[in-house]
Amino acid sequence: MNARCRFVTVLACIVALIPMAAESQQPTACSASPYRQFDFWLGDWEVKNEQGTVVGTNTIRKILNGCVLHEQWRAADGGSGQSHNIYNLQTGKWHQSWVDDNGQLLLLDGGLDDQGRMVLRGETVSEGGATVIDEIIWEQAEGGGVRQIWRKSTDGGANWRVVFNGLYTKVR
Fold first, then answer.
1. Which of 128, 146, 127, 126 is nearest to 136 (CA)?
2. Residues 45, 169: contact at Cβ < 8 Å?
3. Which DSSP string corresponds to 12-58?
4. What is the mean pLDDT of the chain?
5. Alpha carbon distance 119, 136 (integer Å)
6. Tens digits of per-residue pLDDT, 26-70?
7. Cα 9 from chain centroid?
8. In CATH, what number is assigned to the domain containing residue 113?
9. What is the spatial distance between Cα 45 and Cα 82, in angstroms, rounded to a whole number?
10. DSSP 36-47
11. In a domain, 106, yes or no
12. Structural domain harbouring 100
């Protein structure tokens, strides 16, 4: 093959690759900054309670083209649960759907507060018929960790009872 044919062949290959390169640089549907607000929770975690006892492990991954944070919880006592978390562009809020092996369903909505904490809230009904507000707060902790506090109110938010206070430490 002469030099001119080689040049034309190389040029044709480069031209053919240009659309693929441009495609790979296109942002995904969920790459805007609001979709990244909860990224501090991504990773493999060991979770300890306030007394320093390991209560479980948690794995948080992005799935579905980076649009959804998928949580996989494994409690030290053998229990498990999962959640899907997504930024809802229509409402401007984050949404979490949590389910576990005890049949619990939590539907929470919210977003970042003025302190940079992710705060999600939802309502359930107790066995006695009372409305219960569930609020879960995630905040970045020293050393790259995450603090998660789950609290409940049965009086419209006047008083709160902490049901979980965990410190997430990255598993290396």
1. 146
2. yes
3. HHHHHHHHHHHHHHSPPTT-SGGGGTTGGG-EEEEEE-TTS-EEEEE
4. 89
5. 6
6. 667 898 999 999 999 999 999 999 999 999 999 999 999 999 999
7. 47
8. 2.40.128.20
9. 14
10. GTTGGG-EEEEE
11. yes
12. 33-170
